[in-house]
Amino acid sequence: MSLIEFLQQLINGVSLGSVYALIALGYTMVYGIIGLINFAHCDIYMVGAYIGFFVATYARLPFIPALLIAMLGSALLGVVIERVAYKPLRRTTNINLLITAIGVSLLLENGFNAMFGGNPRTYPGDILKQQTVMFGPIRSDALHLIILGISLLLLVLLNLFVNHTKMGRAMRATSLDKDAAALMGINVNTTISMTFAIGSALAGAAGMLVAILYSSLDPYMGMMPGIKSFVAAVLGGIGLIPGAFVGGIILGVVETFMAAINSKIAGAVAFVILIVILIIKPTGLLGKAVKEKV
Amino acid sequence: MLKIQNLNVYYDAIHALTDINIEVKEGEIVTLIGANGAGKTSTLRAISGLVPAKSGTITFEDKKLNGYPAYKIPYLGISHVPEGRRIFSNLTVMENLQMGAYCRKDDAGIKKDFEMVYARFPRLKERMKQRGGTLSGGEQQMLAMGRALMARPKILLLDEPSMGLAPIIVQEIFHIIKEINGSGTTILLVEQNANMALSIANRAYVIETGNIVLEGKASDLLQDDSVKQAYLGG
């Protein structure tokens, strides 16, 4: 592989990784705040792609408004799922929540299949122009760069929100200790809803971006990216926001290079990484074993 | 100021508190002493809305607190330093204190109270940027108290501030509690360390298996034979 090829692949890898990071953030934030692996998260990604598709196709909205509507719709869906399906079970064992999450996932996938059919659809061709961009000798696809740019922008905004606003601090405090957070005057239910809203909005954005990139969307499109992003979240350290970012980028880059070498094994990379990380460092790259001081 | 009347609390079938009556008047330090599992923490958690009252009333400044969700309580002027401190271990010392002021909007006052807390606990100022979880036990207790003070409470509920601390640190903490009270904050103190608690309190209640068995002036209880035998090591 020449240096130029290497750099091209690197851009594609980071771009794919930033999409994984967007989805992984939802997994990790929800896990951080209610200790649930939200299996329906990958279907919110799918729904985001559909919402964007409908407003772009039938309302003829351009890219940015369609993206914002897709994010808003996904956020709403995430909040509704939490309120209707998860909140009533919050005080029961985690296995109940987990099974419910799988149920919600199946409901969304098969519900969309029943309503809109299983045939893949495509976004209108003019929503984003396919274009080749040259940086000297390095060729890149404008779509990859746009996806990378939007993902990075969303990640920076999220980081600012979580670390530098009162609501963001409340979110972190709630994920550490719900009772103590309530004693500070934080409405825990609102904070949990907000976490679902943000995570779902990011997933919805990712869904729309990927559906445009691969010019295809179908009711089951969330399954593989969902599992891979979950691996990314575990790789970085589940529950840790920077971990989701690091894990996503690493996974995207590794997978892209593996695909360049042998496309058949690329799909297995995520699972190999999952197994290795669970054996060597189950808390993830950025995770620390929690010690309590008395 | 704070009045608990005939309070009953259940955890499923377990009757944790039976007809508890406690009153705290403005400016006082009132202590609730008793053994492990007697119901001290449950009493505070009921005031803060973390556990529901089955019957009875809790009133604060003539407002009935029953049915208030926990997150609304600090807005009324009640700050609770929970058992085991429960600081936010991954947040910095400063962020922990900011969380304490979550229920306030007066930025100027919050800024002033940061200075007040740092003056009262100079070690927190030194460790401002450190994560709460890296502090020693005594410092964590100070952080938990500082965090509660950031709400500028009318009454401070303290749950076992001496737990797990070296005697010299306990002395320091109790000295600070006295100071906080001196500057106008009413205090309801729950303690297993009856000796220390009674030495700084105005009045005291003794709780045994969910029942108040004795109440009176703290100085009287310090001399009381049954209290001496049960809680003061003979």
TrEMBL record, chain A:
Pfam families: BPD_transp_2. GO terms for molecular function: L-isoleucine transmembrane transporter activity; L-leucine transmembrane transporter activity; L-phenylalanine transmembrane transporter activity; L-valine transmembrane transporter activity. Keywords: Amino-acid transport, Cell inner membrane, Cell membrane, Membrane, Transmembrane, Transmembrane helix, Transport. Its main location: membrane. The chain crosses the membrane at residues 20-37, 67-85, 97-116, 142-162, 194-217, 229-253, 265-284. One of its GO terms (cellular component) is plasma membrane. It is found in: Cell membrane. It is a multi-pass membrane protein. GO terms for biological process: D-alanine transmembrane transport; L-alanine transport; L-isoleucine import across plasma membrane. Belongs to the binding-protein-dependent transport system permease family. LivHM subfamily. This is High-affinity branched-chain amino acid transport system permease protein LivH.
TrEMBL record, chain B:
Gene3D superfamilies: P-loop containing nucleotide triphosphate hydrolases. One of its GO terms (biological process) is L-amino acid transport. Pfam families: ABC_tran (PF00005). The keyword Signal does not apply. GO terms for molecular function: ATP binding; ATP hydrolysis activity; branched-chain amino acid transmembrane transporter activity. Residues 2-234 form the ABC transporter domain. The keyword Nucleotidyltransferase does not apply. PANTHER family: HIGH-AFFINITY BRANCHED-CHAIN AMINO ACID TRANSPORT ATP-BINDING PROTEIN LIVF (PTHR43820:SF4). This is High-affinity branched-chain amino acid transport ATP-binding protein LivF. The gene is livF.
